[in-house]
From TrEMBL:
Its EC number is 4.3.3.6, 3.5.1.2. Gene3D superfamilies: 3.40.50.880. CDD domains: GATase1_PB. GO terms for cellular component: cytosol; glutaminase complex. This is Pyridoxal 5'-phosphate synthase subunit PdxT.
Length: 195
């Protein structure tokens, strides 16, 4: 199958590597522009989106990766990775940029100081009958969804926490740390279909 890249500048890229390895994918950690050569998809991990943005620019990775995403490279972002795929951040730190591609506006650290981390179960019919156990760690919320993006999951109060658009998938939570593999399988299907 195609090689799947994982942006490995910062954050929980090892957890994603473990899940993808377990699913039999060929994995490559991406740190330099040449690491993008030949990958069939890329995972953007959880971590700190403003730091990943800065490091990507420092390593000369920002523009080449943005171009690859614009050209249709499949990508799956979790938490900070979702922020990096959003077209707009409502409250980014000064100068913070995103790769974009998802027609959404996100708000970082959206769940408030008292409850920035919590767990819940989500019904996501696309992934089958068993609910997804979702762990949020200082996660973002999708504040608005444009016409080109599609909601995959929302909390009981309606706040959107998973979206997709074309070859792009984003979740505000972290399947890579809970033994939940269905998002990664769903993403690998997209990668294989795009190859
Ligand atoms: N709050 C972080 C950010 O803004 C995301 C947290 C996470 O990825 N767990 O990038």
């Amino acid at each position: 199958g195609p090689v799947v890249g994982i942006l490995a500048l910062q954050g929980d890229f090892r957890e994603h590597a473990r899940v993808l390895d377990g699913l039999g994918a060929r994995v490559r950690l991406v740190r330099r522009p040449e690491d993008l050569d030949g990958i069939g998809g890329i995972v953007l991990p959880g971590g700190e989106s403003s730091v990943m943005d800065k490091l990507a620019r420092t390593f000369g990775l920002f523009e080449p990766l943005r171009e690859r995403l614009r050209a249709g490279l499949p990508a799956y972002g979790t938490c900070a990775g979702l922020i990096l795929l959003a077209d707009e951040i409502e409250d980014g730190i000064a100068g913070q940029q995103t790769f974009g591609g998802l027609d959404v506006v996100v708000r970082r650290n959206a769940f408030g100081a008292q409850n920035q981390s919590f767990e819940t179960d989500l019904d996501i019919p696309e992934l089958g009958e068993t609910p997804v156990h979702a762990v949020f760690i200082r996660g973002p919320v999708v504040e608005s969804v444009g016409p080109d993006a599609r909601v995959l999951a929302a909390l009981d109060d309606g706040r959107v926490v998973a979206v997709e658009q074309g070859n792009l998938l984003g979740t505000a939570f972290h399947p890579e740390i809970t033994g939940e593999h269905r998002f990664h399988e769903y993403f690998l299907d997209t990668v294989r279909a795009a190859a």
